[in-house]
Give the backbone structure.
Amino acid sequence: MLEVKDLKIYYPIRGGILGRVVDYVRAVDGVTFTVEPRQTIGLVGESGSGKSTIGKAILGLVPLAGGSIHFNGEDITKHIGKNRSPYRKSVQMIFQDVLSSLNSKKRVLDVIAEPLRNFENMTKAEERKRVDELLSIVGMSPDNALKYPHEFSGGQRQRIGVARAIALRPKLIVADEPVSALDLSIQAQVLNYMKDVQEEMGLSYLFISHDLGVVKHMCEYLAIMHNGRFVEFGSRKDIYSDPVHIYTRKLIASIPSMDPDDREKNEQQRDIISREYTERYKDFYQENGKVYDLKKRNETHYVATL
Ligand SMILES: Nc1ncnc2c1ncn2[C@@H]1O[C@H](COP(=O)(O)OP(=O)(O)OP(=O)(O)O)[C@@H](O)[C@H]1O
Ligand SMILES: [Mg+2]
């Protein structure tokens, strides 16, 4: 459904008194992947690795420096800047604390109905009915429609964000750290709603997170990012049970554990990894510090190694 090929996005760095472009930040530097209907693909990596930039590119919000993005065979760059194209209905975004970024003077009804007002010709009654349905899908009662976003907890706000994102029955949702601002117990609740909605609507997610712990139960496939490139791509099993790249292994070892036995094991693992990081650096990083191109290990598992 979504086909991202050798995607490159460079941001200009300006300098000097003339503000000329002196260099570029290679925010995304040659990334390839696909998302099929009903799939959830996780995009995981530390801050600044280029995750949100990939999300923005898929929504047509940033110009590409290279590569291509196709959705159902169609080049999406054609739609950049065109607000009402069908593509803008098919792909939606949820991000961290969605509602606080929206106008807080709007009632929940207006927040959820906004995409409907932009794309569908509904009567007020039809609109209200649809908003009530959407609220109930995320486990909230219709009474909430007339309240304001600040009257809700963080978890409820994110659920309202989910309701808004699915209003136009999209095919793909880019979820950029949708639960990162929430407590652990509330994270699970919001993720469960996201999963239910996925089942019900046959959605795909591109799920962005800096935390491999959070995405573990959401994602069928995961891409691990570092400095604008994929260091490893694989099924959930490949990544969590057989991580190969030193960077992936570092992320796995840093997942906090509740079990004291695991904690000790993790600590040993972290020691091994930091030793290997020095000894085997050249197996994982080129001289300029970039990771290698991905190499196939098996049908589902790809690793950036020498
Ligand atoms: N508008 C911009 N102009 C210039 N540089 C940018 C811009 N947006 C992002 N960058 C740079 O591009 C790189 C990737 O940023 P991006 O926001 O995609 O990272 P991220 O992986 O989403 O990080 P985080 O986990 O902190 O959200 C970073 O080095 C960032 O500083
Ligand atoms: Mg980000």
In short: The mean pLDDT is 90. Residues 51-52, 176 surround magnesium ion (ligand 2) (CB under 6 Å). The two ends are 31 Å apart (CA to CA). The longest strand covers residues 20-35.
